[in-house]
């Protein structure tokens, strides 16, 4: 009898899983809602570095970056379908090979023992010289891991990846990031194609189709169904100023580009938007056809207070991508805060436009 009951429960669960999968498969990718990680590659600051910096942290900034992530393939195994990557250009190599804080603090863990930071290529760091602990020293290694995971799970639902090109002024140690150029952005596109594969990327050209602009395609709901983009990734440039404009230059409606941009609604390149505050404006944009990325938490504040109000707003807004640092509770401070949909899932039908 017990065996029969167990078999019945198993079949029921299997049928439920199949029904849910079929349900999402028939939806367009702007009609689902996924949870993913923020600065997905980041490891925790080493304790000895954190201790040193905290003594000089008069503005109490350090607790805001006191978070960490498990390896990206494990995040994907959990069911997360959004990742965030920061990328520094390093065309000559070695620019970030020696974090300056290591001149002040003796650490137990060696940095970059294989010397990967000395070679030319795009590097993955959160904050140069200070918050440098990373799952991947190079974008190349990250993309290779994504391809390996994707090839092992060919039927995975699409993964949204926000990619932030980091540059700017020199920091307090005098390290000034290499500034992006049109060539560096061309090289970045080629990096994605080379190590992940164009066949695994949902591009702006794919969405624009026969429409005159990308935006026209988006407001006409020309996004593909989930079942038609299994095993693929969609990249979005996390920048809304000079670097975004530089990336778009000579590429009207992002023709030929690999990455979508955070462009104002109604402009020819507009398709995916960043709205960190999950406010009421999001639902209207979702109904118009845009894909929106928002945040469930930021700067560790919600996790420390175990405050889910921002996450609830994010869910209700219909934003298709919700990022968090806490798909698992923190191990760096005491908190039970953990983000997921019902039954520990990270993907569901969109509450605003899911049919």
UniProtKB/TrEMBL annotation:
This is Phosphatidylinositol-specific phospholipase C1-like protein. Pfam families: PI-PLC-C1 (PF16670). Gene3D superfamilies: Phosphatidylinositol (PI) phosphodiesterase.
């Amino acid at each position: 009898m017990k065996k029969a009951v167990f078999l019945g429960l198993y079949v029921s669960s299997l049928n439920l899983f199949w029904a849910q999968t079929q349900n999402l498969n028939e939806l367009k990718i702007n009609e689902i809602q996924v949870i993913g990680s923020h600065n997905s590659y980041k490891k925790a600051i080493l304790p000895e570095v954190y201790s040193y910096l905290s003594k000089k942290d008069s503005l109490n900034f350090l607790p805001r970056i006191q978070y960490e992530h498990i390896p990206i393939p494990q995040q994907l195994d959990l069911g997360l379908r959004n990742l965030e990557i920061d990328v520094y250009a390093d065309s000559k190599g070695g620019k970030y090979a020696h974090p300056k804080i290591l001149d002040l603090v003796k650490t137990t863990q060696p940095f970059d023992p294989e010397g990967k930071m000395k070679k030319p290529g795009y590097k993955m760091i959160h904050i140069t010289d200070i918050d440098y602990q990373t799952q991947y020293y190079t974008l190349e290694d990250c993309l290779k891991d994504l391809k390996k995971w994707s090839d092992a799970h060919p039927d995975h639902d699409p993964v949204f990846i926000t990619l932030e090109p980091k540059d700017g002024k020199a920091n307090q140690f005098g390290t000034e990031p290499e500034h992006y150029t049109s060539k560096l952005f061309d090289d970045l596109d080629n990096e994605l194609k080379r190590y992940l594969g164009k066949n695994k990327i949902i591009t702006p050209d794919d969405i624009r189709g026969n429409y005159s602009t990308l935006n026209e395609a988006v407001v006409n709901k020309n996004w593909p169904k989930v079942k038609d983009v299994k095993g693929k990734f969609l990249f979005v440039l996390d920048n809304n100023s000079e670097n975004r404009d530089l990336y778009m230059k000579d590429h009207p409606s992002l023709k030929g580009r690999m990455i979508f941009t955070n462009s104002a609604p109604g402009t020819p390149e507009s398709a995916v938007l960043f709205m960190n505050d999950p406010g009421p404006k999001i639902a209207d944009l979702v109904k118009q056809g845009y894909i929106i990325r928002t945040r469930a938490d930021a700067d560790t504040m919600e996790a420390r207070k175990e405050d889910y109000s921002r996450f609830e707003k994010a869910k209700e807004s219909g934003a298709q991508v919700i990022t968090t640092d806490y798909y698992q509770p923190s191990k760096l401070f005491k908190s039970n805060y953990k983000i997921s949909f019902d039954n520990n899932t990270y993907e569901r039908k969109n509450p605003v436009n899911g049919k």
